[in-house]
Amino acid sequence: MTFVTRFAPSPTGPLHLGHAYSALLAHDMARAAGGRFLLRIEDIDPQRSKPAWEAQLIDDLAWLGIRWDAPPVRQSDRKSAYADALDRLWACDHLYPCTCTRRDIDAALGAPQEGAPHHGPDGPVYPGTCRGRHCGGQRCSTAPRPTDMHLRLDMARSIGAMDDRDGLSRGLTFLETGPDHAGEVFTPEGRYKTEIGDIVLARRDFGTSYHLSVVVDDAAQGITHVTRGADLFEATAIHVLLQRLLGLPTPTYHHHRLIRDDAGKRLAKRDDARALSKYRAEGATPQDIRRMVGLP
Ligand code: GLU
Ligand code: ZN
Predict the structure, then answer these.
(1) Which of 31, 87, 209, 275 is packed most tightly, with the most Cβ within 10 A?
(2) How many CB atoms within 10 Å of residue 149?
(3) Domain residue limits, the chain
(4) Is there a contact between 17 and 260 (Cβ–Cβ < 8 Å)?
(5) DSSP strand pairing (36-41 vs 73-74)
(6) Whose atoms come closest to the Cα of 213: which ligand?
């Protein structure tokens, strides 16, 4: 099997040393394996994504010596693929509409009988307020899929549809090759329900979500190895479930260490101080950047 990996930045700010590490590592891995390296621009959020950031990141990556083996895929061009995936999940009653605001959710979670809310990959686990609320007591799939409300994954129903493992415990596995969790990673059914819960798969304002788009696009681009930061490790259990629900293959995952600033804090988009463009302006070479992030 050929090795196909990708770098998938969001054009919402400058690339910094952490992105350089992620992109260079994926690129090095693809070249070492004689495989392919692809670029995907994750611009589903029209408020935060800017063409100028996209142009800058493409320039920075080319300067680093990174070459992609196909034209970049832009998520804003892929709306119909996300709608198709949502239609399929809707038809199987894996989704339900939700009209909750952040405030409604906080209020429901703050109710004294609820105890401390679990924080999952997307924040506090949704209390389920809208489950069974908007479909008039029918299966939601008996009506067309609404596009003016958020759509949440019915987690108990979705994970419950998976086979149990050797008749023992139900859950899903993926293969990890990164430094922190190398080996088979198993997420049991109970953790899906209590620590992830009914996540939003389609936001009302842009008709998709990070989780849905990344799964649909990794499959469409034929990605065999997902290389990305350890901050996304917890999200992978969600992606594996979506792959199973949509009949898509599960790639191998490699979650790499995060590049931290001098105080040990991980770099964020707003850390413009570590922007690649700043190092470039100061005369750094691509080899200097490799050294700074600990690559040969
Ligand atoms: N677009 C995401 C980010 O910039 C990365 C997505 C991924 O690699 O799965 O953090
Ligand atoms: Zn709701």
Answers:
(1) 209
(2) 17
(3) 1-77+260-296, 78-221+233-248
(4) no
(5) parallel
(6) 1
Query: pLDDT tens digits for the chain (296 residues)?
Result: 699 999 999 999 999 999 999 999 999 999 999 999 999 999 999 999 999 999 999 999 999 999 999 999 999 999 999 999 999 999 999 999 999 998 999 888 887 665 666 788 888 899 999 998 999 889 999 999 999 999 999 999 999 998 876 667 899 999 999 999 999 999 999 999 999 999 999 999 999 999 999 999 999 999 999 999 999 999 999 999 999 999 999 999 999 999 987 777 777 666 676 899 999 999 999 999 999 999 99
Question: CATH number of the domain at 78-221+233-248, please?
Answer: 3.40.50.620
Q: Do domains 1-77+260-296 and 78-221+233-248 have the same CATH topology?
A: yes
**Ligand 1: nearest atom to the Cα of 12:** 4
* Domain boundaries 1-77+260-296, corresponding CATH code: 3.40.50.620
27 Cβ inside 6 Å of ligand 1: no
Taking the centre of ligand 2 as the mean of its atom positions, its distance from the CA of residue 92, in whole angstroms, is: 20
Tell me how far apart the alpha carbons of residues 296 and 86 are, in angstroms, rounded to a whole number: 43
